[in-house]
């Protein structure tokens, strides 16, 4: 079987059929980097959708995205069930970083939030390639938070063996990667993130938010800086800070980069595709992003 231009191992199709037959609706996919997890996830969502099932992909890889911008946990559905690359963004949770290191709690909370809000759909969760050290902890907490019906390990070298040994009460399937997986260097991954950020913010307008009508979350230092200083512009380090912009219920509407702060007028401006009147909560991130998508540094 082929998925567009990629050859699909027969056992992938067998596992997809098993999920449909046994109603295994919550599926967590684990494996090291460059194992073809994204291809498998897209295949499963496409296969389920073509069978008439409601299916979504939850992309919990904050660095290398299949749907939505980096620094988020996202959910997407296929606009065309037969086209596994036609993913449309359906929901997101702001993490504010492109690595799970030092962000384990929001990674777990965000993934659980995006999965739970998918309702009764078949949910396929893609994950980062971190599986040792911090990665072991992250995957362990995700398993405990999500309680998946099936865990799929794409690990020809048994990299996930320690995780599987720790959670024998769950159903596990080990699958081979696609034969045409292409390894990506760190530089290639960084360039892919830059392109993704640049495309997300390209041509976006600036919006202004009234500080008196907006709540601020996540970073206490950022919150304090909005009230403790009498400057009429943000500190140099504040400009280009990546933030999540949410509505009054806390639902993330999209990302914005801090452009300017006028404390005298009590106005904060962002470059963002989000409509200003909807924003009621600003969540500060851990990353600075230039207009062309370059990662300028971190807050800590």
Textual characterization of the structure:
Helices cover 28% and strands 29% of the residues. With 300 residues, the chain is α/β, with parallel strands linked by helices. A seven-stranded mixed sheet has the order 6-5-4-7-3-8-9, with helices on both faces. Strands 10, 11, 12, 13, 14, 15 and 16 form a seven-stranded mixed sheet that branches. The model is unreliable at 232-237 (pLDDT under 50).
Number of domains: 2
Shape: elongated
Gyration radius (Cα, Å) is: 20 Å
Distance between the termini: 47 Å
The CATH homologous superfamily name of the largest domain equals: P-loop containing nucleotide triphosphate hydrolases
How much strand? Answer: 25-35%
Low-confidence stretches: 232-237
Spatially, the strands of the biggest sheet line up as: 6-5-4-7-3-8-9
CATH architecture title of the largest domain: 3-Layer(aba) Sandwich
Per DSSP E runs of 2 or more residues, the count of β-strands stands at 16
The CATH topology of the largest domain corresponds to Rossmann fold
Overall pLDDT confidence: 91
Q: What tags apply to this protein structure?
A:
single chain, 300 residues, alpha/beta, Elongation Factor Tu (Ef-tu), domain 3, seven-stranded mixed β-sheet, 7 helices
Question: What's the short version?
Answer:
This protein has 300 residues and is α/β, with parallel strands linked by helices.
SSE map:
Layout: E1 2-3, E2 6-7, H1 10-22, E3 26-30, H2 37-50, E4 55-59, E5 72-78, E6 87-94, H3 104-116, E7 122-126, H4 134-146, E8 150-154, H5 161-166, E9 172-175, H6 186-201, E10 206-210, E11 215-217, H7 220-228, E12 241-246, E13 252-262, E14 267-271, E15 281-289, E16 295-298
Parallel strand pairs: 3-7, 3-8, 4-7, 8-9, 11-15
Antiparallel strand pairs: 1-2, 4-5, 5-6, 10-14, 12-13, 12-15, 13-14, 15-16
Helix pairs in contact: 1-2, 3-4
């Amino acid at each position: 079987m082929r998925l567009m231009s990629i050859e699909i191992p027969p056992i992938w199709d067998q596992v997809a059929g098993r999920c449909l037959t046994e109603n295994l609706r919550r599926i967590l996919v684990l494996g090291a980097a460059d194992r073809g997890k994204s291809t498998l996830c897209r295949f499963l969502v496409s296969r389920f959708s073509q069978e008439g099932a409601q299916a979504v992909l939850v992309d919990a890889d904050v660095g290398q995205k299949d749907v939505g911008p980096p620094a988020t946990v996202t959910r997407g559905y296929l606009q065309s069930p037969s086209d596994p690359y036609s993913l449309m963004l359906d929901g997101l949770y702001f993490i504010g970083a492109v690595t799970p290191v030092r962000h384990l709690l929001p990674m777990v909370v965000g993934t659980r939030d995006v999965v739970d809000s998918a309702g009764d759909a078949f949910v396929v969760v893609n994950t980062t390639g971190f599986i040792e050290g911090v990665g072991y902890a992250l995957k362990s907490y995700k398993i405990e938070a999500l309680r998946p019906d099936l865990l799929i390990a794409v690990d020809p070298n048994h990299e996930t063996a320690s995780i599987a040994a720790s959670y024998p009460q769950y159903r596990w399937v080990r699958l081979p990667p696609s034969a045409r997986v292409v390894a990506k260097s760190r530089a290639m991954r960084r360039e892919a993130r830059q392109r993704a950020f640049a495309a997300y913010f390209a041509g976006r307008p600036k919006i202004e938010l009234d500080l008196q009508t907006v709540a601020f979350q996540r970073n206490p230092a950022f919150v304090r800086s909005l009230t403790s200083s009498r400057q009429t512009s943000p500190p140099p380090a504040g400009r280009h800070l990546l933030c999540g912009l949410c509505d009054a219920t806390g639902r993330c509407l999209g990302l914005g980069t801090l452009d300017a702060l006028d404390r005298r007028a009590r106005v904060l401006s962002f470059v963002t595709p989000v409509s200003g009147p909807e924003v009621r909560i600003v969540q500060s991130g851990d990353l600075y992003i230039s207009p062309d998508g370059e990662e300028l540094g971190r807050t800590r």
